[in-house]
Design a protein that fits this description.
Layout (H helix, E strand, L loop, with lengths): L1 E5 L4 E5 L2 E2 L4 E2 L3 E4 L8 E2 L7 E8 L4 E8 L16 H10 L8 H6 L1 E11 L2 E10 L14 E10 L2 E10 L3 H13 L2 E2 L18
Antiparallel strand pairs: 1-2, 2-13, 3-4, 5-7, 6-7, 7-8, 8-12, 9-10, 10-11, 11-12
GO cellular component, one term: extrinsic component of membrane
Protein name: PsbP C-terminal domain-containing protein
InterPro entries: Mog1/PsbP_a/b/a-sand (IPR016123), PsbP_C (IPR002683)
Length: about 210
Amino acid sequence: MASFFDEINAYSYLYPVESPSDNISLKWVESRKPERYSSAAPLSPDARLRIVSERVDFIDNVIISVTIGPPNASYIKSKDRSEWTAKDVADSVLADRSSLRVTSSQRLEESSVLNTHSSEIDGEMYWYYEYLVRKAPLKLTDKSNTYRHYLASTTERDGYLYSISASTISPRWEKLGPFLEKAVSSFRLLSPTEDYVPPYKDPWRFW
């Protein structure tokens, strides 16, 4: 596993590179280098949820991305994090995670949440969830039962949800799933440095 640090948004995670015994060698392309929330690419027309970094392996069809966005009030109704469930957090993130001009509930219908749980690490809550997406990008097969399989972790800072997701297509899940689970489990917020730019700073700025 290799380490990735984003000082602009103050988080880190580990990502798989190779495992000779499992015949795995991932060739990563950093498709989106770390950038501040205000200039990051939006995932939906309302631009609430944005991709602040992303890496892709085109051969094995693996994507690891980090997004930041405010909670969706339709699913997270309390400001008290102790009242949040992993399912509520998952629904909040997934409802905003779409490029389609549809309602939040329609976006949510694109995804099927399989498992959720939460854990407190170093005083911070992390919510974990596993889900399938019916409309998988980088489609390599015409089989209707092929989905994109995701693992994700979300935590909160300064009123925004920080989420990592790692995914591949379902035929490759058995081989790659355990490595993606390690990546998602390693996601941590870092103590901000002078390079940190909070999401609420200069929301109008695009450079």
